[in-house]
Design brief:
8% of the residues lie in helices and 46% in strands. The chain is built from one helix and 16 strands. The protein has one helix at residues 2-20, and strands spanning 25-32, 36-43, 53-59, 62-70, 79-85, 99-100, 118-123, 130-137, 142-150, 162-169, 172-180, 183-184, 190-192, 194-202, 208-212, 220-224. The strands form three sheets. The chain has an eight-stranded antiparallel β-sheet with strand order 6-7-8-9-14-11-10-16. A six-stranded antiparallel β-sheet has the order 3-4-5-2-1-15, with no helix packed on it. A hairpin with a 6-residue loop joins strand 7 and strand 8 (130-137).
Length: 226
């Protein structure tokens, strides 16, 4: 059931979104509290995955937050939510971790992320069909994000697919959602899986909540296809 739902939903999204630059996300929220930050996205129905799981964000044996994946049910959309304690953004937490400037498929991170590098932390054994990676930027401004790489898309989704949607309010980019395709070696073997990605950014000392559920058409675009 999981494999069938993922395949049909995402192939439909590919066919409809590539020609119309349809949005990827229906709703984005960023809640900045005194001691933690929570960000969440509701993906449009075409990108709904039949996955339900909550995992802890653990770094060097210390829990700093959690990621929740919720399948569409009872009228609720497919949702990814991440909560992180602000202590997670201390530089000493990430000593020994090498930064990256790419998504799991090797495509570049969005260029509004500055400095344009994040720490990528793979969550092992997340799901038989899905790999989970948490992204963190601990240099002010701060960033948190999630990538879901979908193994079953190999050979069924266009290589180089890049659908992007910016989350903007008050002339500021607060985050971005993306769909990225798989990449292949010259012999046809899979180099990296395609999937879904979103990231949110905020500055030190910011408090309050950003909620976006009304996006401009120009926020969504086809960024790469070859």
């Amino acid at each position: 059931m999981l494999q069938k739902s993922l395949t049909l939903g995402l192939l439909l999204a590919a066919m409809t979104s590539l020609s119309s630059c349809k949005k990827v996300v229906d709703k984005f929220s960023l809640d900045l509290g005194d001691n933690s930050v929570t960000t969440a996205v509701n993906f449009v129905p075409e990108f709904g995955l039949n996955v339900d799981r909550t995992v802890d964000i653990v770094v060097k044996g210390v829990k700093y937050g959690s990621v929740s994946i919720s399948s569409p049910q009872n009228g609720e959309p497919f949702k990814i939510a991440l909560t992180a304690e602000l202590e997670m953004f201390l530089p000493e937490v990430w000593e020994g971790f090498a930064p990256t400037n790419t998504l799991p498929n090797g495509e570049a991170l969005p260029n509004w992320i500055q400095p344009n590098e994040l720490i990528a932390v793979d969550v092992p054994n997340f799901n038989e069909h899905v790999d989970l990676t948490v992204y963190v930027g601990f240099k002010n401004p701060y960033y948190v994000g999630v990538a879901l790489s979908l193994k079953i898309l190999d050979g069924r989704y266009p290589e180089g697919l890049g659908l992007s949607q910016a989350f903007r309010k008050n002339n500021k980019t607060w985050g971005q959602g993306m769909v990225y395709g798989p990449t292949y070696e010259d012999d046809g073997s899979v180099r990296s899986h395609g999937g879904l990605f979103f990231v949110a950014g905020f500055s030190k000392g910011q408090k309050g909540k950003i909620l976006l559920n009304n996006f401009k058409k120009s926020d969504a675009q086809l960024i790469k296809l070859h």
